[in-house]
Amino acid sequence: MPKDMMQKKKVAYDISFKVYTPEDIQKQQDDLINEVNMILDISKEEAAILLRHFRWNKERLIEDYMDRPRHVLDAAGLAQSSRLPRLEVIPGFVCDICCEDGDGLESFAIKCGHRYCVDCYRHYLSQKIVEEGEAARIQCPADGCSLIIDARSLDILVTSELKERYFQLLNRTYVEDKDTLKWCPAPDCQNAVECAVKKKDLEKVVPTVACACQHRFCFGCNNNDHQPAPCRLVKMWLQKCADDSETANWISANTKECPKCNSTIEKNGGCNHMTCRKCRHEFCWMCMGLWSEHGTSWYNCNRFEEKSGTEARDAQAKSRVSLERYLHYYNRYANHEQSARLDKDIYQKTEKKMVQLQRESGMSWIEVQYLNSASTALQTCRQTLMWTYAFAFYLARNNLTEIFEDNQKDLEMAVEALSEMFEKPVTELADPKLKVVIMDKTAYCNKRRVILLEDTAQNLAEGRWSFSVDLTTPGPNGGSSSRR
């Protein structure tokens, strides 16, 4: 039976899902194969190939097969033949691949009849499975032949190690063929998660799921949990950070924009007379005004109040405000990202601290679990706070924004207070009063996170948020077009 992780919808940001182990996934396939095998009266190997061809849609497979069986078999790469593939030694046989023709040479052919020596067949299958990662659609080696090599034929030819890899790949295709299933992206985790959320709903919901391995990720985009930010917004934010964050601070401090074409310019000499390399516009580095208005004053700006300079400075100020706004949100996003990493390091030391606390205070293992709870709350809340700044960057201001920012501030203050308590030495953590305070603050942090996520998710589902970008229409380079 699958490890049922179904959640009842108690709050707006909850999403229903189930977690399946590799054994669960195999059982699902076996059940479908057995059912098709009985209904259509075909072999299990043929049923498996047909189901993979129809992406495991049993109802559509049976309906199409009943209407036109020959067409379905041909399309799936199956032949109407009762001949069972087996190893054979045929006198006078010459392998078309290696040209071997020795006495006792074993050969093999599937139902199409294209025959090759066993060594060539095994080499071909090994290349397909190991090097190309193919399993569900391995075709006959003959040029132009579309017949699929089934599991029974493969069982005759390959080693047990290769068979194991073959069935692992078949399992992967089962999950990848189903829109409602995804593999858990955590390293070394072999579980799959089922969630019924559709792509068209991703602008109204952030489908966070939790695997049995404790890894939380977004079912929509496979990134780590990024509530409350929708998937498309996350994609745009990560792209912007990759493009801008490393150079934004340097640009802000060391460059200005050309007043005419807005190209970014770095001053590389002492002279204030600047000439834009792109549009050849000449201006003053100090006041941004036309250089022609500066007379013969080549190195000192004495025309600060010229109209052209005022307009240029206004445009420059607007550009800098935009950059500073981005840096405001990015720096806070990056700070929580870094803090989350540091909190994770603390979490790895938590067990050691808990053991020490037991030894020095006489507490039981159960009694020191409050530190584990506090560490988990810190990581979860940091992750949420990190993404609230990406969310806020694209958020258009309205009467809901102040409520969001108040919730954000309350959570941030609670997290910082808990983090400070958590880092106290063991001698202080042994104080029963501090334990109560930490437990209360942990519960408060979790409560404030729920309040923030509930508010943002409810407004997202009801379409009440306004963003500076369109979350539904892809723009150039995979981004989104503006929406006003």
What does this molecule look like?
With 484 residues, the chain is mainly alpha-helical. The chain has four domains: 1-21 and 164-225, no CATH class; 28-76; 79-158, 2-Layer Sandwich (Herpes Virus-1); 231-482, Four Helix Bundle (Hemerythrin (Met), subunit A). The chain has helices at residues 22-40, 44-53, 58-67, 69-76, 118-131, 151-157, 160-177, 231-254, 307-361, 369-394, 399-422, 426-429, 432-461; strands at residues 18-20, 88-89, 106-108, 116-117, 181-183, 192-194, 208-210, 216-218, 255-257, 264-266, 273-275, 282-284, 469-474, 480-482. Helix 9 runs antiparallel to helix 10 (369-394) and helix 10 (369-394) runs parallel beside helix 13. Residues 1-9, 302-306 and 475-484 have low confidence and may be disordered.
What distinguishing features does this structure have?
484 residues; mainly alpha; Herpes Virus-1; three-stranded antiparallel β-sheet; 13 helices; disordered N terminus; disordered C terminus; zinc-finger; ubiquitin protein ligase activity; transferase; RBR-type E3 ubiquitin transferase
